[in-house]
Amino acid sequence: MTSPSPLHGKLNLTAGLASVAVAFTLVIAKLWALYVTGSLAVGASLADSGLDLMISLAGLAAISYAARPPDEDHAYGHTSAEDLTALGQSFFILISGIAIIYTAIGRYADPTPPELSAEAAGIAVMVLSIALTLVLITFQRSVAKRTGNKVVAADSLHYVGDLIPNIGAIVSLIAAKMFGFDFIDSLVAIGAALLMISGALKIGKTALDALMDRKAPDAEIEGIAAITANFDGVLGFHDLKTRTAGSRTFVTLHIELDGRQSLYEAHEIGADLRRAIMEAYPNADVIIHKDVWFPTPKPDETDAPSA
C-alpha cells in the first residue's frame, strides 16, 4: 500500500495554514467593521468568516491526520478523515445560513430598522476581504489541482462562495450611504445565506458519497480502462472496481495474461501496468490480480494424430 506523496502532503499543509491565516485576519477586520457600521450584510460576512476559521482549523487538522501513512489499524491509510471533516463543514455552514436568513427576515420586517453608519470603513474592509480571498483561492486551486485533496478543494469552493457575500456587503453599504436604501442590507444577507446553504449541500453530498465508497468519476475509470486495454502483454481485463476516500482513489482490477510465459514476465507486466496507471493518476492506489489465460493453440502447435 502506497503512502501519499510527501510533497503533496507539504503543499496541502501549507494551503491549510494559509486558509487559517486569512480567515483569522478577516474575522478581526470584520468584527471591527460590524462594530462601526452595524450592517447585517457585514455581519453575515463576519459569520461566514468565523465559520471559515473554524472550518479551516478543522481542515488543517484533517489534512495533517490524513497525511499519516498506513499503519496496522488503518491498512488503507487515513484519508477518510478528509471526508468526515468536509461533512462536518457542510453541517455548520448549513446551520449558519439558516440563522442568517432568520435574522435578516426579522430586520427586514422591522418597521424601524437600525440605520447603517461608517459605510466607508465597512467598504474598505470588504475590499480587503475580497483581495485576500482572491489570493487564497488562486493558491488553493493550484494545490488542489496538484494533490487532489478534497479538504483543500472544498475550502477553495467555499471561499469562492464568500466573494458574493463580500461584494453584496459593499453594494448594500453603498446603497445605504448614497440612497438611504437600508433594506437592501437584509436582502443581500439573505442572498448570501442562500449561497452558503447551496454550497453546504454540495460539499456534504460529495463527502457522503466518498464515505459510502462511491466509485471514482467516470472519466477516471474510463482512463484506467483505456490504459489497461492497450497495455502491452495484457490480453484482457475484468472486474475493474474503484472507490474514493479523501483525495485517494483505490483501484482493483483483474488482468488476463498469457499462461505460457514465465512468472517473472507476468509479474513485470503487472508492475509496469500499475506504474502506468499511477503515473496517469498520482493519487490512485492500485491492486492488480493476474489471471492466467491460454490462447487456443494453432493447428501446427497440436500434435499430429498417430497413424
TrEMBL record:
| InterPro entries named among the record's database cross-references | Cation_efflux (IPR002524), Cation_efflux_CTD (IPR027470), Cation_efflux_CTD_sf (IPR036837), Cation_efflux_TM (IPR058533), Cation_efflux_TMD_sf (IPR027469), CDF_Transporter (IPR050291)
Matching SUPFAM superfamilies, A to Z?
Answer: Cation efflux protein cytoplasmic domain-like (SSF160240), Cation efflux protein transmembrane domain-like (SSF161111)
Using the UniProt record, give the first listed, main subcellular location: membrane
Q: Which family is this sequence assigned to?
A: Belongs to the cation diffusion facilitator (CDF) transporter (TC 2.A.4) family.
Which keywords does the record carry?
Answer: Cell membrane, Membrane, Transmembrane, Transmembrane helix, Transport
NCBIfam families (UniProt xref): CDF
Q: How does it sit in the membrane?
A: Multi-pass membrane protein
Which residue intervals define the domain Cation efflux protein transmembrane in the entry?
Answer: 17-212
Domain of life of the native organism: Bacteria
User: Any idea what this protein is called?
Assistant: Ferrous-iron efflux pump FieF
Looking at the record, the residues that make up the Cation efflux protein cytoplasmic domain are: 217-289
Provide a GO CC annotation, any one. Answer: plasma membrane
BP GO terms, sorted: intracellular zinc ion homeostasis
Q: Where does it reside?
A: Membrane
Q: Name one GO molecular function term.
A: zinc efflux antiporter activity
Q: Which gene encodes it?
A: fieF
Q: Which residues cross the membrane?
A: 12-35, 41-63, 84-105, 120-139, 159-180, 186-204
